[in-house]
Design a protein that fits this description.
Blueprint (H helix, E strand, L loop, with lengths): L13 E5 L3 H12 L3 E5 L5 H6 L6 E3 L13 E4 L4 H13 L3 E4 L12 E5 L2 E5 L6 H14 L4 H18 L3 H12 L2 H7 L3 H16 L8 E6 L10 H9 L2 E4 L5 H4 L7 E4 L2 E2 L2 E2 L3 H13 L3 E6 L9 H11 L3 E4 L4 H9 L11 E6 L19 E6 L5 H10 L7 E6 L7 E6 L3 H4 L9 E5 L6 H4 L10
Parallel strand pairs: 1-2, 1-4, 2-3, 4-5, 8-13, 8-14, 9-10, 9-13, 15-16
Antiparallel strand pairs: 6-7, 11-12, 16-19, 17-18, 17-19
Helix pairs in contact: 5-8, 7-8, 11-12
The structure holds S-adenosyl-L-homocysteine (SAH).
């Protein structure tokens, strides 16, 4: 190792920064967030910079650096744009045995500042020993996406239990075992999701259960929206839960590419529903979720799109809530947003549509009990889910209730995937337009003037267009 990684406590400690422009400003922000007192020295100081510093607590000295600026200082940062000045500051500081960092001049100083991911109190730092700072920053960006924002909260919460845990388990091993269970379990997930009270309660319970030597055996359920198909559209949280689940319950709507990102050695259970061919009735899925969670498993219920939009997500968690099983719901990009974006059809637009309505196009007993007269305003976009079978009926009802028969319609097949196809027509023409085409599910129907924009704004893939 070229450097020894070390975290420095600079709270209320005098730190010297030499330099008065934006580079110094960035370093000062960092020092301030760690509670340091600053002595800022430079002939020219950005107004923004001196405005940032409380003049009672910090010192601002407007002139070039001189040796006695180092008096009483613990840490030095040379942040001017002159190598000579930075070098002189560094030499003087080293002569006094101080820690000195030179911005963009690692070899001149004796300390470097890493790229950091701040989830305080948790901090991850990345350094390339000054050899490739851009690479370090790139790596940081990657790590950022892996570390949920809630890690800081989780660490704080753990900190608040530390004394209690230490008092109850005298051996280091027992304590480690306890924390490993907590950090890999439902309490941690609740904390990451921001439910701090629930998390606190669960850690308290785990503590009591372990003390009483009884093994706690309740798992948890993640009801996760897997988006419309393109795996790039997953949320960070979805991906993280997908990668830690023990069992995955999925159905037809979840794309292969998304499914492939789940933990490899998890058990997979297909609970898909096909029209006319119910693989597993909804009630059975609900019971299965409960059963698996009660076996102590982390169960992922992966749904296409968003679980709370025509996804029956509400029913699935209703049973879990009844049984007191911890769960969380992770939103996903719903088909309407995904398909509309990838087809270049804005769902609202100042000139064409002031509102949008998501409607179930699922036929019940061959018909609909929808309020059609509410759907005929020209300035409203309609998005029909599950409407392919009912398309002729949908178009007819809209025309009969007074929507302009020339209103444009788009069918988006397998939106956001490589198979995406967009077919457009009007309320009067679309059914005959697509008569010869075998349209594959899932397909979404968008009705409204905004569909006109598709020709101009389409950008995704090399779809074969049908006009
Ligand atoms: N919860 C899902 C919707 C489930 S209902 C969501 O939020 O997207 C199933 C219907 O969604 C399908 O019949 C189809 O109309 C639509 N759908 C889902 N994914 C789609 C996709 N990739 N392309 C087109 N339509 C899709």
């Amino acid at each position: 190792m070229d450097y020894l990684p070390l975290y420095l406590d600079v709270r209320d400690t005098l730190c010297l920064v030499v330099g008065g422009d934006s580079v110094a400003l960035r370093k000062i922000r960092l020092l301030l967030s760690a509670g340091a007192r600053i002595r800022l020295v430079a002939p020219d100081i950005l107004e923004e910079l001196s405005g940032m510093l409380d003049h009672q607590r910090h010192e601002i000295i407007q002139r070039p650096f001189q040796g006695d600026d180092l008096d009483g200082v613990r840490l030095v940062i040379a942040a001017t744009d002159s190598d000579t000045v930075n070098g002189a500051v560094a030499d003087a500081a080293k002569a006094r045995g101080l820690t000195v960092n030179v911005v963009d001049g690692a070899e001149q100083g004796n300390a470097i500042m890493p790229a950091i991911i701040d989830r305080s109190p948790l901090i991850v730092s990345v350094s390339s020993a000054g050899k490739a700072p851009v690479l370090a920053r790139l790596l940081r960006t990657r790590l950022e996406s892996l570390l949920p924002d809630g890690y800081g909260r989780l660490a704080d919460l753990a900190g608040s239990f530390r004394a209690q845990v230490k008092a109850r388990f005298s051996s280091l091993n027992d304590r480690r075992y306890f924390w490993e269970k907590v950090f890999g379990g439902p309490a941690a997930e609740q904390a990451l999701a921001g439910n701090m009270e629930q998390a606190r309660r669960m850690i308290g319970q785990a503590l009591e259960a372990l003390e009483a030597q009884e093994e706690q055996l309740v798992g948890e359920v993640y009801l996760v929206g897997g988006g419309p198909g393109d795996p790039d559209l997953l949320t960070f949280r979805a991906l993280r839960l997908m990668q830690q689940a023990d069992v995955v319950l999925h159905d037809r709507l979840v794309s292969e590419d998304v499914l492939a990102l789940c933990r490899r050695d998890a058990d997979y259970i297909y609970v898909g529903k096909r029209r006319d061919q119910h693989t597993l009735p909804q009630e059975d899925i609900n019971t299965l979720l409960v059963k698996l969670a009660k076996e102590g498993k982390r169960v992922l219920r992966l749904k296409g799109g968003d679980p709370f939009i025509f996804g029956r997500g509400g029913e699935e968690i209703d049973t879990l809530a009844d049984e007191g099983i911890p769960f969380q719901v992770v939103p996903g990009i719903t088909a309407a947003s995904g398909c509309a974006s990838y087809a270049g059809i804005p769902l609202t637009h100042r000139d064409y549509a002031q509102s949008v309505r998501f409607v179930t196009g699922h036929l019940k007993d061959g018909g609909y009990d929808l309020n059609w007269s509410e759907m005929v305003r020209n300035d409203q976009t309609l998005v029909f889910y599950m409407g392919l079978m009912g398309l002729p009926r949908i178009c007819q009802e809209l025309i009969d209730h007074g929507r302009n028969p020339e209103t444009p319609v788009a069918l988006i097949q397998q939106g956001t995937t490589r198979e995406q196809r967009v077919y457009t027509g009007s309320l009067t023409s679309i059914v005959s337009d697509i008569a010869e085409i075998k349209i594959k599910p899932p397909t979404l129907i968008i009705v409204g003037e905004v569909v006109q924009l598709h020709e101009r704004l389409k950008w995704f893939g090399l779809e074969e267009e049908y006009a």
